[in-house]
Design goal:
The complex is a heterodimer of chains A (459) and B (396).
Chain A: H1 2-8, H2 30-39, H3 43-69, H4 83-86, H5 94-106, H6 114-132, H7 139-159, H8 161-196, H9 201-205, H10 208-211, H11 217-235, H12 249-275, H13 280-295, H14 298-307, H15 309-312, H16 323-347, H17 350-358, H18 363-378, H19 380-393, H20 405-413, H21 423-457
Helix pairs in contact in A: 5-12, 5-20, 6-7, 7-8, 7-11, 8-11, 12-13, 12-16, 12-19, 12-20, 13-16, 14-16, 16-18, 16-19, 17-18, 19-21, 20-21
Chain B: H1 19-52, H2 83-116, H3 121-135, H4 139-151, E1 161-162, E2 168-170, E3 173-176, E4 178-181, H5 185-213, H6 219-237, E5 242-245, E6 248-250, E7 253-255, E8 258-260, H7 262-289, H8 292-300, H9 305-335, H10 339-342, H11 347-359, H12 362-391
Antiparallel strand pairs in B: 1-2, 2-3, 3-8, 4-5, 6-7
Classes of the chains: A mainly alpha (459), B alpha+beta (396).
């Protein structure tokens, strides 16, 4: 019908050619339109924009001037950062940070022994990168490294002394024995095959204890390598004992965070399983522990660890001053971790449990092979959040007298060598940047993981 | 592994593999371990305390304290007060800073959370920067910053910074005018209370009327009249009985007015801004959790932006917001214990700090402190759970 009307109406205009593409009108595209839509869409928005712009213009240039343009970057004492001595307005005193940087990292750790801390730092960085890098090879080896080898190495290296070396020797003996056993056992099947012939292959496969050593052989060899390396280190320059009272700075901050992470995760998993257990006493004890710890502030837990832990053990085993807050922090984080893991366990569909049971798996195999890997994967963001909280909470050990990073900053602030009007602002800014970068990095990582996991759910 | 053979009888399993027996075994084992740990800890503690000649029991409660506290809501002095009174002073200070902090943090948090969702680019970016910075820096560092870097370097009382309405700020704290009630001053308080009650009654009546008849009443206008205008009228009718004593310089210090200590200000500001960062995220998540279809449906019904937010979006968002909001309130209360680092006399500073140091009775003091926080936590979550149940989604 439309065709008919166009045919009938001789004056109807029908365009025969396509028009050239026109740019979008200014009111819907381009920076002007963006500004109109995002900054000036209503009178209220205009007012808000103006207020915010005023805030930014008022504060940001001042901050930049204070922390960068007017800042003092080099110098050896407070004179470098005093306005009357320098003869110009002085902002942040970065010279002070540069001068005390070693102290912020190592605390009072003896200067000629600081290479030990550095080795631990390198190992720590290696472990973290290994675990966090998505496509890293041999993840299981990485987990073993981070959760078993690293703590042992850090203990031996940081503390040193005869006790630590005895411990290292013990670890070395155990892994050596395991390695020897592995070598012997892995040769036995070959020998059997050699003497009895191919018919014995079936017999070999029925011997599970030999097979068990094929799996962890890498772990044993890896551990052996690390321990041999450590004992070489310990023997050549010697590892004199460095008391924990001398440890400080970022070393202690990372130490507390790492110990908290290493112990709170498995303990949290156990507590979460206990809370969901059908055995009433186990459930009750888990609930009491979790709710009790979550109901009190970390400070009181630290006070308890500091004052009551020494009372609870015989006098001769009185725990080290640094060990006490470590125990407190780990237990505290475990309770929070337990709730996060519980969330993951609750999110598991019943079918997963039933599937595992129908395969004939027992409780522990079911949890280890089916449920926990999935549950933990779901709650990785929650776990990272708990780690962030834990990392921030490490500052609280300041209050019970441990020289963590924040405490070293505070300690240098009362030191007259660098007492200037801007030292405090500089020190706090430096600490804030350090904590911000660590926490923000962790939260970025958890967001990336979340996105990667969500990719599997996308249709 | 082994091939299942057809002729195996499903006989009774060995006791070793019976789940019930195993369950009993594990539980008894756990109880034995926990019991042993507690028993050995207790016996060690008794022995250690005896060796150190530290008294046990709660006898210290009535001993003279012998120290003073600057901020106290109940009478307390170094000369005549006991450790028990010190406990109450600390507890009240904790509750004071926590309750004010909760109210302020809620307002600031909602404000920032909504700002982060604003269509205004600069507003949402500033809110985002606020949240990211606040949440990723330890609270203790922020408290040090507020106390040591902001409030301590303020000028001494002689060079106080004068704020509007007679407020003075210096390194001894914030000085606020002290209201004095003359004759008839009480009437204003009563008028305010009556106004509040009347507003509440009117509001519920108006709601019922609206539900029954559909007629709307000007609740906002009536509330304004009852809460603001009525006390003002009484104020003028009784001849302006409230006068303010302004803080003024006398010698090297200020006289008159109410002194708010810098420790309190620092702790309050720190707790408020820190918790607000977390509440903002809770609020944002709650609002984002309300599906866009709800807003569109409300628009389709012809609701304007204001009522849409008030009647459709916020009530549904609250369901998502309340549980995490509760834990943020609890966190704020627990975090107020960081007061010990800047010397605000809260429960931990007064009791677990000073009293513990003076008496040495670690077990009792720490146990009492923990019990207090545990009680606060449990009571708060009990009430919030009731509220949550009322607000929760009722499904068919």
């Amino acid at each position: 019908m439309t065709d008919a009307t166009t045919e009938m109406a001789p004056y109807a205009f029908v365009r025969r050619e396509t028009l050239e593409q026109q740019p979008a009108p200014l009111s819907v595209a381009g920076p002007l339109a963006w500004i109109r839509a995002h900054l000036l869409s209503s009178p209220l928005n205009i007012a808000l924009t103006l207020v915010c712009l005023y805030l930014v213009v008022d504060s940001v240039p001042g901050l930049i001037r204070f922390y960068f343009l007017d800042a003092v970057w080099t110098g050896t004492s407070r004179d470098a950062c005093l306005a009357d001595k320098v003869g110009r307005p002085v902002g942040a005193c970065w010279a002070y940070i540069a001068d005390r940087f070693q102290y912020f990292i190592y605390g009072s750790y003896p200067i000629n022994q600081r290479w030990r801390v550095n080795i631990v730092f390198v190992m720590f960085a290696l472990g973290v990168a290994w675990l966090l890098w998505t496509n890293a090879p041999k993840k299981k080896l990485g987990i073993f490294f981070f959760f078993v080898l690293l703590p042992i190495s850090a203990y031996v290296l940081l503390l040193g002394g005869p006790g630590a070396e005895r411990f290292l020797g013990f670890c070395l003996t155990v892994t050596l024995a395991l390695a020897a056993l592995y070598v012997v056992l892995s040769f036995v099947p070959q020998l059997v095959r050699f003497y009895i012939g191919e018919a014995a292959v079936g017999v070999v496969q029925a011997l599970p204890i030999w097979k068990r050593f094929f799996g962890p052989k890498q772990l044993v060899l890896f551990a052996l390598a690390i321990f041999v390396f450590l004992s070489l280190l310990a023997n050549s320059p010697g590892l004199p004992r460095v008391d924990t009272g001398l440890w400080g700075g970022m070393t202690v901050t990372f130490l507390i965070a790492a110990v908290g992470i290493v112990f709170s995760l498995p303990l949290g998993v156990v507590l979460a399983l206990g809370r969901r257990s059908r055995l009433p006493i186990i459930q009750l004890l888990s609930v009491i522990f979790i709710e009790f710890v979550r109901g009190v502030p970390l400070i009181t837990v630290l006070f308890m660890a500091n004052t009551m832990l020494p009372l609870f053990v015989p006098q001769e085993y009185s725990p080290d001053r640094l060990l006490r807050p470590l125990v407190g922090v780990a237990l505290f984080a475990a309770a929070y971790m337990a709730e996060v893991v519980r969330g993951g366990l609750q999110a598991m569909p019943k079918g997963q449990y039933e599937g595992a049971m129908s395969l004939g798996l027992g409780y522990w195999s079911m949890m280890r092979l089916i449920i926990l890997p999935q549950a933990l994967r779901i709650v990785i963001p929650g776990i990272v959040n708990t780690f962030i909280g834990l990392f921030k909470d490490t500052t609280l050990v300041t209050i019970v007298g441990i020289f963590d990073f924040l405490r070293t900053i505070e300690a240098t602030l009362v030191d007259p060598t660098w007492a200037t009007p801007t030292t405090r602002a500089t020190g706090y800014a430096f600490a804030a940047v350090f904590y911000f970068l660590c926490c923000w990095g962790m939260s970025r990582y958890s967001i990336a993981v979340e996105k990667r996991l969500a990719a599997g759910q996308k249709r | 592994m082994s091939t299942p053979s057809a002729d195996v009888k499903p006989g009774k399993a060995s006791l070793l593999y019976d789940p019930t027996i195993r369950g009993y075994f594990y539980q008894i084992l756990l109880l034995a371990v926990v019991g042993f740990v507690i028993w050995s800890a207790a016996s060690n503690a008794i022995e250690n305390l005896r060796a150190q000649k530290i008294a046990s029991g709660f006898g210290f409660w009535h001993n003279a304290a012998g120290f003073d506290v600057n901020q106290k809501l109940i009478p307390f002095s170094a000369s005549g007060s006991t450790y028990g009174q010190a406990f109450w002073v600390g507890l009240l200070n904790t509750l004071l800073v926590a309750s004010i902090g909760i109210v302020l943090a809620t307002f600031l948090g909602f404000f920032v959370g909504v700002a982060r969702l604003s269509s205004n680019w600069i507003v949402s970016k500033i809110a985002m920067i606020y949240v990211e910075v606040i949440r990723n820096v330890p609270l203790l560092l922020q408290l040090f910053f507020w106390y040591n870097a902001v409030l301590k370097p303020l000028p001494n009382p002689r060079q106080s910074i004068e704020l509007p309405a007679g407020f003075l700020l210096n390194n001894r704290g914030l000085y606020v005018p002290d209201p004095q009630f003359g004759p008839g001053g009480n009437l204003i308080i009563w008028a305010l209370l009556i106004g509040l009650v009347a507003t509440f009654v009117f509001r519920s009546w108006a709601r019922k009327q609206q539900a029954a008849t559909g007629k709307q009443y000007p609740i906002g206008l009536v509330a304004f009249g009852l809460i603001i205008v009525l006390p003002l009228l009484v104020y003028f009718a009784t001849g302006r009985p409230i006068t303010f004593v302004y803080p003024e310089l006398a010698g090297f210090n200020l006289r008159g007015g109410i002194q708010i200590f810098p420790e309190f200000v620092a702790l309050l500001v720190g707790l408020t801004t820190y918790t607000a960062g977390f509440i903002a995220e809770v609020v944002r998540a709650g609002i984002l959790a309300v599906s866009k279809g709800q807003t569109e449906a409300a628009n389709a019904l012809g609701l304007r932006a204001g009522p849409t937010l008030k009647l459709v979006v916020i009530p549904q968002a609250m369901r998502v917001i309340i549980p995490p909001l509760t834990s943020n309130y609890l966190n704020l209360t627990k975090n107020s214990s960081l007061a010990v680092a800047i010397g605000y006399p809260d429960l931990v500073q007064v009791f677990t700090g000073t009293v513990l140091n003076q008496t040495g009775q670690a077990v009792e003091v720490v146990a009492i402190t923990m019990a207090v926080y545990l009680t606060i936590s449990l009571v708060t979550s009990f009430f919030m759970n009731i509220y949550n149940k009322r607000m929760a989604l009722v499904e068919r």
